[in-house]
Amino acid sequence: MAQLSRLVPSARGLLVFEAAARTGSFTAAAAEFNVSQPSASRSVAELEAAIGARLFERRARGLALTVDGSDLYAVVGDAVGRIAETIEAIQRRQHGTKPIVTLSMSSSFVAHWLLPRLGEFHAAFPQIDIRFDLIPGVLRGVPDNVDLATRIIADDDPNYHRWSFAPEIVFPVCSPAYLDARGKLDHRGDGAGHVFLWLSDHATHEWAREWGNVAHRNASKGVWHEFTDYSVILQAALNGDGIALGWLSVVSSSLVKGTLVPASDLVIRTGRHHSLIAPRSRPLNPIVAEVALWLRSNLARELEALDETFRPR
User: Fold this and answer.
1) pTM of the model
2) Contacts of 290 by beta carbon, 8 Å cutoff, 6+ apart
3) Does the pLDDT of residue 133 top 90, yes or no?
4) 172: which strand partners?
5) What is the Cα 312 distance to its own chain's centre?
6) Buried b (16+ CB within 10 A) or exposed e, 229-243
7) Burial of 291 per CB tally in 10 Å (0-12, 13-18, 19+)
8) Which element (helix H / strand E) includes 13?
9) Are the C-beta atoms of 149 and 105 separated by less than 8 Å?
10) Residue 211 contacts residue 224 (beta carbons within 8 Å)
11) Helix or strand (DSSP H, E) at 94
12) pLDDT(224) > 80
């Protein structure tokens, strides 16, 4: 430890770096440590200065690890995961607590899909406790210090156990009251009379071709509200405050209940798939596989209850 203390200004900097690399965001890393975003960014900048290398590329759409950053994260991420596992094992030995399964998921999926089923989940798995590692925005980076995560990865990625979860199907959604009051969205128009609820992590140019004129904010006559947390966006849409992009795997329950409805006839099938993944860097706990299968079967059953338009093909 004495040698490490000469190499880096503080162990905290390494922990903040690990969180930023795992989440792809200084904002998300700051939230984990209950500090401001500039404070988290400064901790990483001090670490970079001490090491003498850039660890991240700061881009408009978020953080990307450099080659040096990837090398460091491979070691730090694994070490942090193993430390956490060891501490939890010691606590279980000392206090007789149940094993903890850590899930890395979007805050929106947990709030709008999983929380309403938490009682059913507990009934299915009374022998474990759950820790949620929540991501407020885009799910960047693949964690290796959690037990189970939802991510989009290559089908042949050798680093993870993988269970297919849901196709990436995206479409605009709003509340029935909003639709009655303002009517369907015309993607060929200028968005006049509509309110758009947008996630800061989503670059509008990515959706411009599919969305048509309304995606061009400079020319839009609609009102745009921007958020850093997709879960809040969906809550605003449920409240009748505007139109949001809806990811099928997150809004399926709201569609079935009728609390959210399509805001137009547009349905974007990206051809990508969300997967449940578990790192192969450690032995797969059988209970983790059971949790993955429970999540997959419950979502599949719900997708079957949807209108044909939104069913997986």
Assistant:
1) 0.66
2) 125
3) no
4) 245
5) 21
6) bbbbbbbbbbebbbb
7) buried
8) helix 11-23
9) yes
10) no
11) helix 67-95
12) yes
